[in-house]
Amino acid sequence: MTTVSEHDSALARAMARPEPEEKVARRILDAALEQFTTFGLRRSSMDDVAKRAGLSRVTVYRRFRNKDGLVEACLLREGSRFFAQLDAAVADLPSMEERVVEGFVVALRHSREHPLFGGLLRLEPEVVLPYLTVKGGPYLSATTEYLSGHLRRAQRAEGRPDSDTGPLAELMVRVAVSFLLNPAGRIDLGDEERTRAFARRYLAPLIGV
Fold first, then answer.
1. What is this structure's pTM?
2. What keywords would UniProt list here (predicted)?
């Protein structure tokens, strides 16, 4: 029997995997992304994706057993692409503090601007909200695990004492999701400079806690 932690670890590994090697699978996922971001999840079917990809429905079903599997594969691939963006953004930064700040900026920008994440939240909020709230546990855990590993590597590279980076990683994810769901409030993160200032003042100091 698979435990919750094993499922979360498997999900984290899946989110960090590269693009599918098979050309047809990539073609289907490209078509699915375009279909879902144009018409939403509810109004999209496997047949719609097959037609957009220029493939038979049998070919699509052979690689993705049902619509839920296709949606999950699409989300995982976009998550993997986000991790690649994050890696590139923080790779040359010299300190954990700077990585936390820039990582938060990249995460919030990506969530807002991405056609699948931010786009579907505007197009079909009633469909997407559960996956960012009550059904979001596995994705929260997977993203937290990934970010925590990133912070641990930076911690060791700087020669800092080992400490649990999980709470800080989870806090970054939760704060980013909160601002994505409800950007209105007294804290103005309307542009990247304000976002950096917020992260520098409130998130970076938590490294030493």
1. 0.77
2. DNA-binding
